[in-house]
Amino acid sequence: MSAPESLRLTVNAGPHARLNTPCYLPLPAGTELPDVVALVAGKTRLPGQVERGPDGRRLHFILDRLSAGQSKVFRIQAGAGSPSCGVGLRKGKGSVSVAINGQLFTRYLHQPDLARPYLSPITGPDGVEMTRRIEKRGTPGYDHAHHRSVWVAHGLVNGTDNWSEEEGHGRTVHQDFEAMTSGPVTAAIAERCEWVTAAGRRILNEDRNIRFYALPESMRCVDFTITLKTGEDAVLFGDTKEGGMLSVRVNPQINAPAGTIENSFGGVNEDETWGKRAHWCDYSGTIDGVHAGIAILDHPRNLGHPVYWHVRNYGLMTANSFGVSHFEPESGKRGDWVMPAQSDVTFRYRLYVHAGDAARGRVREAYHDYVNPPHCSVASEG
């Protein structure tokens, strides 16, 4: 068991330059730290946040800057790091508001009358709204009413349409929040949901974890961990393009070709990105005079990685693992997937909001921050 003052944290950037990179590491058994610590290296003083979970304690921090191939050693001290408001959560009736450094970033909406929970709005650089505002069905020019900002859905689950909001559609029903944590570095929502038929019969259970980080206003990121669990019966995820385990409908001001779609292979706009597999996909353009973008990053551990993208010039961007016959009709393949009874599968994504286009916003680098993070270790001094 070690006191904070006797511990040091070593961070190695690896082959990638790091800038405002969310990091975490499991703490050795017996390590005693307060919930908030300071990470000190010379004149640099960063906040650290300790979380307790079923697998032990984790230390979360945001690495401000580190060149490729370089290492940095921090002393872990009791007390806060640099002044920061961090990430705060506030529960309301059917919603959770998320504020980063005192400014509203988004709201998580889960009212019982909704077809499924979603995040809206997503606030980007200079306070612009990165996603389409929610309007009433029938509003002129408002297509695809089920495209609700940022959401999770699939259109063929044991034959049930849990994608649209048309007659007979399925639903994802909020059950409970198992945990909500917040602090100077990160905040997280742990939620239980049920996917049900139009008649209310349960198809599967979902454990959803959404994590937010106290990054500068010019960049934001949200981590989604979506674990689906079957009961006594197997569940068929059908081959359809109508779905996305993570989906975004962008602000109409950046619909292509006024805005730009770009993927990890350099494909540009719908003709070069729709139905293509890629490690990430980005949508960027000018919103109220501010050039900004929003990307979905696909984790290598996901089913079918790199994922197919159901992405359209009119503003839709979804990570779709199952619509193979639509995306590659000439292959003769199908993407139907049977999830066995009494089993589970986890999907992981990072939503990344940035200034500028994909290049200026460092989406490529942000992807490596997500899937190839810095190597971190904690040891006692001396």
Shape assignment: globular
Helix amount: under 10%
CATH topology of the largest domain: Beta-galactosidase, Chain A, domain 5
Biggest sheet features:
9 strands, antiparallel
Order of helices and strands: EEEEEEEEEEEEEEEEEEEHEEEEHEEHE
Average pLDDT across residues? 95
Poorly predicted residue ranges: none
Number of strands: 26
> Radius of gyration, Cα only, in angstroms?
21 Å
State the helix count.
Answer: 3
Q: Return the CATH class of the largest domain.
A: Mainly Beta
C-alpha end-to-end distance: 15 Å
Give me the secondary-structure category: mainly beta
Could you explain how this protein is built, in words?
It contains three helices and 26 strands. By secondary structure, it is mainly beta. The protein has two domains: 4-82, Sandwich (Immunoglobulin-like), CATH 2.60.40; 111-371, Beta-galactosidase, Chain A, domain 5 (Distorted Sandwich). A hairpin with a 5-residue loop joins strand 14 (186-196) and strand 15. It is globular, with a radius of gyration of 21 Å.
Brief summary of the model shown:
This protein is mainly beta and 382 residues long. 5% of the residues lie in helices and 49% in strands. It has helices at residues 269-273, 324-327, 363-371, and strands spanning 7-12, 18-26, 36-41, 44-53, 56-66, 71-78, 87-92, 95-100, 103-109, 118-119, 150-157, 160-162, 171-181, 186-196, 202-213, 219-229, 235-237, 243-249, 260-263, 280-287, 290-298, 308-311, 316-320, 337-339, 344-355, 375-380.
